[in-house]
Amino acid sequence: MAEKRFEGKLAVVTGGGAGIGRAISKRLALEGARVAIFERDIISAAAVIEEIEAASSQASWIEVDVSSEASVQSAFDSLDRVDVLINNAGIASVGNVETTTGEEMDRVYNVNVKGVFHCTKAAIPRLKKSGKGAILNMASIASYLGISDRFAYSMTKGAVYAMTLSVAKDYIEYGIRCNCICPARVHTPFIDSYLEKHYSNRKEEMFKELESHQPIGRMGNPEEIAGLAAFLCSEEAAFVTGSAYHIDGGVTNLR
Ligand SMILES: NC(=O)c1ccc[n+]([C@@H]2O[C@H](COP(=O)([O-])OP(=O)(O)OC[C@H]3O[C@@H](n4cnc5c(N)ncnc54)[C@H](O)[C@@H]3O)[C@@H](O)[C@H]2O)c1
C-alpha cells in the first residue's frame, strides 16, 4: 500500500457514496487526505464516512446535487481549502439516437456535463490557492469508442474528455493539473442497477456477457480505478496533465 501522499490536503469526491467514488474516497482518506464527499444519496454517503472514520481517517459528506449550481457553490463555500477535485458523479443512459428523448438528453447532460462544469468552476479559485491543485474527471471508453445503444451517455463522456483538455490547457500556469480516466466496465451498483432494469430475468447471463467484453475476461473493480486516481492526483504524477488514461482490460487496444 502506498504512503501518505495526501497528508494535509483536502479532496472533494463527487458521487463518493457508491462504486468508484466510494473506493476513491476511501483510498484518498487512507493516504492521509481529508475527504469531502458531495452526494445526493445521503444514506450511502454517511455509510462511507463511517467506514473511513473506522479506519481513523477524516471525512465528511455534504448533500449536493451536482446538476444544481447553487447546491455545488454552497458546498464549496463550506470548505476551508480544496487541493483535489474528483468529478466522479455520473448517471447512465441506454438508447440510440432514435429512442433517446430530448428530456433524456437533458437529464444526462445536467448531471454528467453540467455537474463537472459546476464543480470545476467552483473549485478553480480554491485550487489556484492550493498551488498544486489536481482535477480528475471520470470519463469512459465511450468518450472515444463507439458503444452500442449509448447515444446520450457517449455524448456526455465525449464532453468530459474535451473539458479535461480545455481545463488542463487554461490552468497549467496556475499549477493545476487536469486529467481523466476512461474505464471500460467496472463492477459497481451502476452495473447492477443496469442489469436489474434491463435484464431482470437473465442477470447472470448478461453479467457474463459484460465480463467477456473485456479481453482480460472480467470487469474492473472500483479499487483498481481508485489506485490510478490516487496516483494521478498525487505529486508522483506532477508531469501528467491533459491526459486520458485507459483502464479497460484491453478493450481499446486489444479487441
Ligand atoms: N461502472 C462502470 O462500468 C463505469 C465505466 C466507465 C465510466 N464510469 C463512470 O464512473 C463514474 C462512477 O460510476 P459508478 O459505476 O461508480 O456509479 P454508481 O452509480 O455506482 O455511483 C455513482 C454515485 O454518484 C451519485 N450521484 C449521481 N448523480 C448525482 C448528482 N446529481 N449529484 C451528486 N451525486 C450524484 C450517486 O448517488 C452514486 O452514489 C460515473 O461518472 C460513470 O459514468 C463508470
Shape-level CATH architecture of the largest domain: 3-Layer(aba) Sandwich
Average pLDDT confidence is: 97
CATH superfamily of the largest domain: NAD(P)-binding Rossmann-like Domain
Taking pLDDT < 50 over at least 5 consecutive residues as the criterion, the unreliable ranges are none
Shape: globular
Ligands present: nicotinamide-adenine-dinucleotide
Distance between the termini: 32 Å
Order of helices and strands: EHEHEHEHHEHEHHHEH
Number of alpha- plus pi-helical segments: 10
Global Rg: 17 Å
Q: Which fold name is given in CATH as the topology of the largest domain?
A: Rossmann fold
SS-derived structural category? alpha/beta
Describe what this molecule looks like in 3D.
There is one protein chain. By secondary structure, this protein is an alpha/beta fold. The chain has two domains: 10-183 and 223-240, 3-Layer(aba) Sandwich (Rossmann fold), CATH 3.40.50.720; 186-219, no CATH class. The chain has ten helices and seven strands. Helix 4 packs parallel to helix 6 (151-171). It is globular and about 50 Å long. The model has no long low-confidence stretch (mean pLDDT 97). Nicotinamide-adenine-dinucleotide binds at residues 14-15, 17-21, 39-41, 44, 64-67, 88-91, 111, 115, 138, 140, 183, 185-186, 188-191.
